[in-house]
Design goal:
69 residues, 3 helices, elongated
């Protein structure tokens, strides 16, 4: 697969996955978190950074070139 195709697939996947992730985080916050500003602040700080590691693996895959054998 070419780098250009990988970038297209990765961009579509990240857009879809991050949208689902944001909706899931919002659902968990509204449904399960107690109504306290400090808990909400900590929760959103954690989930706001938690998506970066999985997204990094997709970005690395998108920019990796296939080695010819």
């Amino acid at each position: 697969m070419t780098v250009r195709t990988k970038k297209l697939v990765g961009m579509l996947f990240l857009t879809f996955a991050l949208g689902l992730y944001a909706m899931a985080c919002f659902y968990v916050a509204v449904t399960f978190l107690p109504d306290h500003w400090l808990i909400e602040l900590a929760y959103y700080a954690i989930v706001g950074m938690a998506w970066a590691l999985p997204a990094r693996t997709v970005l690395v895959w998108m920019h990796r070139t296939d080695q010819a054998a």
